Input
Amino acid sequence: MHLSLPLSSPVFDGNEKIYSERAIGSGHIATFGGFITKFEQKLSKRLKTHEAVALNSGTSALHLALAILGVEAGDEVICQSFTFCASANPIIYLGATPIFVDSELDSWNICPEILEDAILGRIAKGKKPKAIVLVHLFGMPAKIEALLEIATKYQIPIIEDAAEAVGSTYNNVSCGAFGDIGIFSFNGNKIITTGGGGALISSNATIIQRARYLSTQAREDLPYYQHLEIGFNYKMNNLAASIGLAQLEQLDEFVSKRRKINANYKKLLGSFEGIAFQKDSENSKSNFWLTALLIDNKITGFTSDRLRVVLKKRGIESRFLWKPLHMQPVFSGIPFYGGNNSEQMFKKGLCLPSSVNLTLKDQENIVEVIAQELVKAS
Ligand SMILES: Cc1ncc(COP(=O)(O)O)c(C=O)c1O
Output
């Protein structure tokens, strides 16, 4: 049987069509219009203590966050290594250097102990890091309490890259709302999408004001165009925000569906030896944007790549975990603190289809392919 199961596809079963038609009808589809404000307000309401600025990508949100924290050429910024390149690229845009830090094996996110070693190591070299970029990988909250303690101890601001963690919580607080600045992505395959889009969030009014100013070309509030600083064209447009508003209305439903998909995979694959999952901790609630596995090929007899190829032949899309940034050719020579945790997870890992509209039957079919592979390997 040939299936057609993508890794993560969007679902537009809410008010997307109605709102986007309204946006077009209003004549405002660029960076001015009522849906931008409504989207920001709805997002801020969810975050309770934080305000949100809607932007055109998660990458631009990270770029703005770093710029607002004063990162400049020659600075160093600590960054989780086990992540997508967009977590680190904006550090380079500003002429600063990322310092990569390995992950721990529970949440797969930045390891608090290694983070502290890295901070001390850089301070010993006379370079106190200007910021810390931590990530909630595949939606899984990082060990936020321990990380905040270290950041506070050394007085270094945290940027939370919650691009993949919209709707995830830690101690019932939204991921993104712990750091000095948090960012979200609403790219095409994320848990909610605006086509391309992102947001910067903060509880600090000065940071929010600065983000609004810098994201709209740093235009002064005057009847003519006057600029005192170099700004960016990073604001979200009204058409994207109209879709975002409709998506946001369904976020709780999407999170509970993705969590159910994760629970089903755990149930269906639970008895298979050599297959392990990314785990929620007692305090954390992942949105399980993607369900990710680790495959121990010494036990299963097949590698993650072998499984990827077999799944692909059956029309099932799967994907490697992010290749750690310290292993990326483009970042060669950049300092790295840690061992081989993220490297090992990268080698063993695979993300399985996790779209909101995946059915239990689809999941049973996927697990059947994995089971057949296990039988062949035994
Ligand atoms: C961890 C992480 N950070 C940043 C980004 C960048 O977001 P965007 O694609 O919206 O620029 C993404 C996703 O694409 C991501 O997965």
In short: The mean pLDDT is 96. The first helix runs from residue 16 to 26. The pocket of pyridoxal-5'-phosphate is lined by residues 57-59, 83-84, 86-87, 135, 161, 163-164, 185, 187, 198 (CB under 6 Å).
